Amino acid sequence: MTKCDVAIIGAGPYGLSATAHLRTVKGLDVHTFGEPMFFWEDKMPIGMLLRSGWAASHIADPNQSLTLDAFRSASGIHFSSPVPLDRFVEYGHWYQRQAAPDLDRRKIARVESDEKGFRLILHKGDTILARRLVVAAGISSFAWRPPEFAGLPSSLASHSSEHRDFQRFAGKQVLVIGSGQSALESAALLHESGAEVEIVARTRQIRWLGGLISRTIHSGLGPAISSLLYAPTDVGPAGISQVVARPDLVRRLPRSIQDWLRKKSIRPAGARWLVERLKSVPMNLGRSIVSAVPVGGRIKVQFDNGSLRTIDHVLLGTGYKVDVSKYEFLDPKLAQSISRFQGFPRLSEGFETSVPRLHFLGAPAIWSFGPLMQFVVGTHYASRALLRYIAAKATGQRVQLREPLVAELG
Questions:
Q1: Quick check: helix, strand or coil at residue 99?
Q2: How far apart are CA 187 and CA 163, in angstroms?
Q3: Which residue of 21, 153, 370, 390 has the fewest CB atoms within a 10 Å radius of its CB?
Q4: pLDDT tens digits, one per residue of 274-294
């Protein structure tokens, strides 16, 4: 049986960043599992652009040397913001080769609690015993389908995460459900692939990031005022952006304020550069679908106003709902022993759960550490906080790190 001090499950931005940071602790044996950038490469559509700006799209590393700028220089490939998905995936693979060249790509079949830590059982039967476990497995397991579409085949109704290429929808009638970035950008890509697209959303007005107030602050009042109201993390509206950029502050606020900050910071919205691309796409706003049934190879939907429509496909840009018990590799007994709120694990210092030495990074940490954890930029705080905590436990020494979160992200 192989043993290690820390096992990390996941090789996306959070897992890779955690690996890079923890490997700075002398004598700490860190073993990382996963396919690098799997979600970004397999669950996002070709042609997508990152919503976050350049400064907020670097994956954190302890020396601040594995940045997008460094990758651009090393690869000789020129690109800028908004960052194309394919370039970000290439950046992630480059980062992995620098920070975790020994990445273990074997799939974890099950994780069980053990008196000495955690037992990771691989698909081929090998077992690894880890004293501490960090789960950075992303959001793929949390894709949410509204109940109206339960039981329908993916040929008629599918989640946006099920598609890499929208070319097969050319000439088809497609309803896109949702008003967030995923739904809106999917609609633009479908339209550009030759599909006849319509957006349906319950909201009565699409929210576009970088509205009039934001643009006035950024361009009219100068960088000094802008930097006071907006943190480089690029998450949240004016003023709120500076608060949510500081997860240590957020987690100490009253629960009602934390919930309000989260709602204000990650509500459905689209990047402003989508406006032009969607000008020819009809939007049926203030409407929702109450039923959907197959009809002769197509799908008939009924809207809340009683109207009916028969189309070829419904694309669900309905986002994700975190519930860590849906991670298939977690033994049900272990999953149930984690204190949770509506699927989110309750996390303490160092992103540790109620189960000692079990940590969650990324979207599952939103409820405890705020909306920054939904974005790549959250790796800057999360990896450093995890490093401080685990290093102190392993060596008894406090790790001193500069805080790049607000002043040094770029």
A1: helix
A2: 12
A3: 153
A4: 999 999 999 999 999 999 999
- Cα–Cα distance for residue pair 20/119, rounded to 1 Å: 23
What are the two backbone dihedrals, phi and then psi, of residue 17, each rounded to the nearest 5 degrees?
A: -65, -40
Predicted confidence (pLDDT) at residue 170 exceeds the cutoff of 80: yes
Domain ranges of the chain: 2-142+322-395, 147-207+269-316
Provide the mean pLDDT of the chain: 92
**CATH for 147-207+269-316, among 3.40.50.150, 2.160.20.10, 3.50.50.60, 3.40.50.12780?**
3.50.50.60
Q: 2-142+322-395 maps to which CATH number? A: 3.50.50.60
Predicted confidence (pLDDT) per residue in 204-262, tens digit? 999 998 754 554 555 555 666 777 888 999 899 989 999 999 999 999 999 999 999 99
Say whether 147-207+269-316 and 2-142+322-395 share the same fold: yes
Percent of the chain past pLDDT 70, that is, above it, reads 93
Q: What is the DSSP code string of 325-380?
A: GG-TTB-HHHHHTS-EETTEEP--GGGB-SSTTEEE-SGGGHHHH-GGGGSGGGHH
Q: Give CA–CA dist 298/192, Å, rounded.
A: 22
